[in-house]
Design goal:
It is an enzyme of class 3 (hydrolase). The chain is α/β, with parallel strands linked by helices and 463 residues long. The chain is built from 16 helices and twelve strands. Bound molecules: ligand FFO, guanosine-5'-triphosphate and magnesium ion. The site of the ligand Nc1nc2c(c(=O)[nH]1)N(C=O)[C@@H](CNc1ccc(C(=O)N[C@@H](CCC(=O)O)C(=O)O)cc1)CN2 has 9 residues, from loops.
Length: 463
Amino acid sequence: MMQDDRIAALATPLGESALAVIRTSGEGTLQALSRGFSRPGTLQEAPGNTIIYGWLQYDESRRVDEVTVAVFRAPRSYTGEESAEIYCHGSIPGIQKIMELLFTLGFRQAEPGEFSLRAFINGKMDLTRAEAVHEIVRSQSRKAQSLALNRLSGRVFEEIDRVKSRLVDIMAAVSVQLDYPDDELPGEDDDSGYVRSLIPMDTVQDAVSGLERLVSSYRSGRLYQQGARVALAGQTNAGKSSMFNLFLKEDRSIVSNIHGTTRDYIQAPVVLDGIPLSLYDTAGLREVDEIIEKEGIRRSGQVIENSSVILYLVDGTNSDKSAHAFDEKQLERIGELNLPCVKIWTKTDLPQCAPAPKGFLPLSMISGEGFDRVQQAMMEALLQGERLAGDGDLVIDSLRQKQLIDDALDGLQQALTSMEGDQPLDIIAMDLQRSIRSLGEITGEVSSEDILDRVFSGFCVGK
Ligand SMILES: Nc1nc2c(c(=O)[nH]1)N(C=O)[C@@H](CNc1ccc(C(=O)N[C@@H](CCC(=O)O)C(=O)O)cc1)CN2
Ligand SMILES: Nc1nc2c(ncn2[C@@H]2O[C@H](COP(=O)(O)OP(=O)(O)OP(=O)(O)O)[C@@H](O)[C@H]2O)c(=O)[nH]1
Ligand SMILES: [Mg+2]
């Protein structure tokens, strides 16, 4: 990607809307834009952070749209470059015509994430903030958006920077010793004590626990951003579709006492505790020869295998022994797949319902009794020991960041082991250096084209 040319992109969805925003950026943007503007002088002389009204046009007789243009002067803009935002009418052909005009004026279509890439290159934001911009746009729940806002305001950056600067201080002292090994070198026998005086264990331990906290927030970060797939499974008539409707608070899936009512699985989105869930009602499991139902069961099997958590329902009023054996076989298979599973005993409102066996949560779809407990158990299964994040918590949501923190932790743990094993100072220094490098990569202080490509290519065009 070149940084010295002018880029343009639609920043809002392409569709019918009251207004649409087209972003432009790069040195010479206002000069270029003014050649297609009804008031070229006004636009060129406009101070930064002002809005100019006028027409986009090839000339007086070939007008393209009536617009307002927001003017940003370098370095006071999102990208840090001279920029302009065009507020036009939100019509698809209108937008297309404006983009064509911009191309003839010397702008090119921006790559995905290119505005944010430029902001990073021009020192407007570090990589954790740039990733947060993208995470905000993608957030599917209010909680996910709040957590991404914390990151945009620099909370991840600050935490990483805090840990890193302590390690850098240690490295500085270590480097001096490595460069001038003869200075104040104590006796050979007392080497480890001297290494420990240069590298305070508790500072390294503190760095480890800070980084471990961040890594462990990743699971809930993922959960808030990506959500989870929840499959309702069990034999026919167990109450899966009833439960599906209970989740959605809507009569969405057909419920009947005829076994095999649901054949095609049904998917619906639902947000629970700020976590966007994809809920699947599946075909009841049973041995059948009928070809359509058989296919429905096969497809449901795939949905179940690909879910993050399974809610397995058993009809508590069914006293049939072979039915119980069938359930046990299914649960065994789920166990083998290593999928988290919540076992639910349904129809507890009916007098013929047997008491829920050990490990099963009782539930009545009619009264809703037990539903809170089931939802809670499902969340616990999804979080696997993590606690739910609060709005103000520091939670990471980038696999890239998580992997780099893992690398940094690895280096620190290695350093600690080497210290315990009284390894020479230069070996320990290499481990510390590796950690520092990984931390620098998280914020983008250390970066390469590859890294930047990986971060920004997933963005939307116009971001
Ligand atoms: N019109 C508009 N609204 C927007 C954005 C945008 O790019 N344009 N944003 C895009 O994500 C978000 C806000 N983020 C922004 C970040 C920095 C600057 C900016 O111009 N910063 C300058 C000037 C700051 C100042 O005047 O004090 C700077 O940092 O130097 C603008 C928006 C959401 N709303
Ligand atoms: N009393 C009572 N009836 C229930 C309960 N849950 C489900 N039912 C009834 O049980 C029958 C089957 O419920 P569904 O939700 O259709 O069962 P399913 O698991 O989706 O069945 P298939 O689609 O055939 O696999 C319906 O008549 C429901 O009204 C419950 O908790 N209490
Ligand atoms: Mg059903």
